[in-house]
């Protein structure tokens, strides 16, 4: 398993070794010792899975306070552009986004620590799965509008299909004012 640092501290791209033979393939999708060696000392308490068709954008979501979540995300099938945005108070990379293509052929993953908004754009119909470090708590849910001009994220999807709530989140500037500087 190869764990790569990104330009945003504490965010990691993970590329498992895939062992293929005529029967199919095998890979390790998580190894506690390797993750801990890179400072990802996360206790996972919930696994989620979604299916989305091409052209859907989900996000940018987060949970606040004691319900904040770190996530380990990947696709089982399909291809997505995965996005995380640093919302940590006093972070030198506050408001910066990191993107990576998660692709079933690579089975690559992204580790998103607490203090980040997260979302993805579906490029090919996808089964998306993620581990969470905290249970879902509706009252602690928040978000940033997906097409925030300040973030300037190229989602690679024309005219995306969005949930109603994902169309109504505040932009980063408004979030910064409401939250008094971040998560």
Automatic annotation (TrEMBL):
Pathway: Carbohydrate biosynthesis; dTDP-L-rhamnose biosynthesis
Summary of the function given for this chain in its UniProt record: Catalyzes the epimerization of the C3' and C5'positions of dTDP-6-deoxy-D-xylo-4-hexulose, forming dTDP-6-deoxy-L-lyxo-4-hexulose.
EC number: 5.1.3.13
Gene Ontology molecular-function annotations: dTDP-4-dehydrorhamnose 3,5-epimerase activity
Group of enzyme by EC: isomerase
Family according to the record: Belongs to the dTDP-4-dehydrorhamnose 3,5-epimerase family.
InterPro entries (UniProt xref): RmlC-like, RmlC-like_jellyroll, RmlC_Cupin_sf
Domain of life: Bacteria
Keyword match Isomerase: yes
NCBIfam families: rmlC
Keyword line: Isomerase
Protein name per its UniProtKB record: dTDP-4-dehydrorhamnose 3,5-epimerase
Assembly mode: Homodimer.
SUPFAM superfamilies: RmlC-like cupins (SSF51182)
Species of the source: Cyclobacterium plantarum
A Pfam family annotated for this UniProt entry: dTDP_sugar_isom
């Amino acid at each position: 398993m190869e764990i790569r640092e990104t330009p945003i501290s504490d965010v990691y791209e993970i590329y498992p070794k895939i062992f293929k033979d005529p029967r199919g393939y095998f890979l390790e999708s998580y190894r506690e010792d390797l993750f801990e060696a890179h400072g990802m000392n996360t206790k996972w308490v919930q696994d989620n899975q979604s299916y989305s068709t091409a052209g859907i954008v989900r996000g940018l979501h987060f949970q606040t306070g004691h319900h904040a979540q770190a996530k380990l995300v990947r696709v089982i099938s399909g291809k997505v552009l995965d996005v995380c945005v640093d919302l940590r108070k006093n972070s030198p990379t506050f408001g910066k986004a990191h993107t990576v293509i998660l692709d079933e052929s690579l089975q690559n993953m992204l580790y998103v620590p607490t203090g980040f908004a997260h979302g993805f754009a579906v490029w090919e119909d996808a089964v998306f799965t993620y581990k969470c470090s905290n249970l879902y708590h509706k009252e602690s849910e928040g978000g940033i509008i997906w097409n925030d001009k300040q973030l300037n994220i190229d989602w690679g999807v024309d005219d995306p299909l969005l949930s109603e709530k994902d169309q109504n989140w505040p932009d980063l500037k408004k979030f910064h004012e409401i939250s008094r500087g971040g998560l």
